[in-house]
Specification:
Helix content is about 30%, strand content about 20%. The chain is of the alpha/beta class. It has an eight-stranded parallel barrel with strand order 1-2-3-4-5-6-7-8, surrounded by five helices. It starts with 16 loop residues before the first helix and ends in a 25-residue tail after the last strand.
Length: about 300
């Protein structure tokens, strides 16, 4: 695939496929409730379980920057606005057609040479027309080298240059947009920090899989235990912090413990201003035979 491939509309608006599912599924979907607590709560919700739930304030969308039907973003904005929600938009720098994806090197060269500028400008110009607040998240979990993402594990200088180019183009096209820099939260994530002027919010990722806890640590771990070192690293940058992706799966007791904690930790993490639930099955297999955990609220209990 050429790095300079133009945006083109697919048969289905791929970028909003998850939200389209939510619209279609909401009438018959089981209705989920927000976890107890007072930290603002958001969802990535293709099944539509939170489509009619009160108390959700953030609607999370994932977009590839190729094969995007831009007009669908207006539908997404209407969906969110009707429910009193703001948008968190994660833009992934590839196509969702796995057989057509770039290599890390071609992606890096393409970004730094400007081959993808038109993609970013078109998407962000559309985001700038939406009549609600939008936070833009690009190149997430760049500090995690498991191999899922072709933008992760780069030389930090290359990543920072790419991040600055993409977010600079986006802010030029949508001046009111907020920028989220979103590492997983691993040690040495600070090497990927792009600078104060390029970040409004820091995002983190926290998933709790009981089978992984038992295999790797010999015991169950809590939301706070996993978040704490990542939060402490993020505090260095003096920005509001959001857990941009959270999910948990395990026994009923394990899930209940996480559910009762994720929005009730404000005293421990005073700069935590939001948690966003990932209500979808895992996309990439976890290592050591752990497979694809199912984070969906009505499928996450494993006993």
């Amino acid at each position: 695939m050429s790095a300079s491939r133009d945006l083109r509309p697919p048969v289905l608006p791929v970028a909003l496929a998850g939200l389209a599912v939510a619209w279609g599924a909401s009438a018959g979907a089981q209705v989920a409730q927000v976890p107890p607590g007072d930290i603002p709560f958001g969802v990535y919700d293709p099944p539509g379980n939170f489509s009619e739930t009160e108390g959700v304030t953030i609607e999370h969308l994932f977009l590839p920057w190729e094969d995007v039907a831009l007009e669908s973003l207006f539908d997404a904005a209407d969906y969110a606005a009707e429910r009193g929600r703001v948008l968190l938009v994660t833009l992934e720098p590839w196509t969702w057609v796995r057989s057509e994806r770039n290599t890390p090197e071609l992606l890096r060269q393409g970004i730094l040479s400007g081959a993808f500028d038109r993609n970013v400008q078109a998407i962000c110009a559309t985001l700038g027309q939406l009549d609600l607040p939008v936070t833009f998240r690009w190149g997430h979990e760049m500090d995690h080298e498991r191999g899922d993402f072709i933008w992760a594990g780069w030389n930090p200088e290359d990543y920072v240059a790419a991040y600055r180019r993409v977010t600079g183009l986006c802010r030029d096209a949508a001046p009111e947009i907020s920028l989220m820099w979103s590492p997983l939260g691993d040690e040495e994530m600070e090497a990927y920090w792009p600078g104060d002027e390029h970040v409004d919010i820091v995002g983190l990722t926290v998933f709790g899989l009981q089978a992984a806890d038992q295999l790797w640590h010999g015991r169950d771990r809590s939301f706070s235990e996993i978040l704490s070192p990542r939060y402490e690293r993020a505090m260095e940058f003096d920005r509001p912090i959001v857990v941009a992706e959270v999910g948990y799966s395990g026994s009923a007791e394990y899930v209940e413990a996480w559910e009762n904690e994720v929005r009730q930790v404000g005293d421990l993490f005073p700069d935590l201003v939001g948690v966003v639930y990932f209500n979808f099955p895992e996309v990439y297999p976890w290592p050591d035979g752990l497979g694809l955990p199912d984070w969906r609220v009505f499928e996450r209990v494993t006993d």
